[in-house]
Amino acid sequence: MEQTDEPQLNWHAVLVKSRHEFKATEKLLSKGIETFLPTVEKLRKWKDRKKLVAFPLFPGYLFVHTTKRSDDLLNVLKVPGVVRMLCTIPTEPDVIPDDQITSLIKLVENKEALDPYPYLTEGQTVNITKGPLAGIEGILVEKLDKHILVLSVDVLRQGVALTINAADVEKV
Q1: Is residue 162 exposed (0-12), middle (13-18) or buried (19+ Cβ within 10 Å)?
Q2: What is the value of pTM for the model shown?
Q3: What is the DSSP code string of the chain?
Q4: pLDDT at 170
Q5: What does the domain layout of the chain look like in residue ranges?
Q6: In the prediction, which pLDDT does 122 show?
Q7: Which of 114, 100, 115 is nearest to 152 (CA)?
Q8: Which residues of 104-120 are buried (b: 16+ CB within 10 A; e: fewer)?
Q9: Are 128 and 134 spatial neighbours (Cβ–Cβ below 8 Å)?
Q10: Within its chain, how far is the Cα of 61 from the centroid?
Q11: Where does the pLDDT of residue 4 fall: very low under 50, low under 70, confident under 90, or very high at 90 and above?
């Protein structure tokens, strides 16, 4: 029985220069590196026209599917516009669970209205920043008037929210 030492492919978050998400994605793909840049379409208005424009869901970040081999990581880091890979431990890029990326891909492909969402957990102390209640601090319990699915990307400490029908979900 032959044992292969094929390095495992994992998803990693990459920080890119401001407004370089699309250029860096294009360069990474041209190098044969599997890349995922979640985008949302927003209607932009000019004086003479309106147009749907794609924007990065997480500005400044994209995801690559690569191994932790130094030459593969260097291949990513050498791309113009790439700043660094997100690491908790220096030189050890954080792995993003496949299920988080798979869920994110499904949400983006669904073309529903997605909004960036702060990384919050139930029971967490929060501060109201807008509206007549601005400045009030409290504990997040749940949102009763709407059913919202929040998908968190742990490594980025960011999430995305989608308004859903309660009948479409079940307890895990």
Answers
A1: middle
A2: 0.74
A3: -PPP-PPPPEEEEEEE-TT-HHHHHHHHHHTT-EEE--EEEEEEE-SS-EEEEEEESSTTEEEEEE-S-HHHHHHHHTSTTEEEE-EEETTEEPPBPHHHHHHHHHHHHHT---EEEE---TT-EEE--SSTTTT-EEE-----SS-EEEEEETTTTEEEEEE--GGG----
A4: 47
A5: 10-168
A6: 62
A7: 100
A8: beebbeeeeebeebeee
A9: yes
A10: 7
A11: low
Q: Report whether CATH 3.30.70.940 matches the domain 10-168.
A: yes
Between CA 139 and CA 124 the distance in angstroms is: 5
HSE-up (13 A, CA, CB side) for residue 105: 10
Q: Is the pLDDT of residue 2 over 60?
A: no
Beta-carbon contacts of 103 under 8 Å, excluding residues fewer than 6 positions away, are 151
Q: What is the pLDDT of residue 43?
A: 85
State yes or no: pLDDT of 133 exceeds 60. no
Question: Of 54-63, 113-122, 124-133, which gets the smallest average pLDDT?
Answer: 124-133
Residues with Cβ within 8 Å of residue 110, at least 6 apart in sequence: none
CA–CA separation, 38 vs 156, rounded Å?
A: 13
The terminus-to-terminus CA distance of the chain in angstroms comes to 40
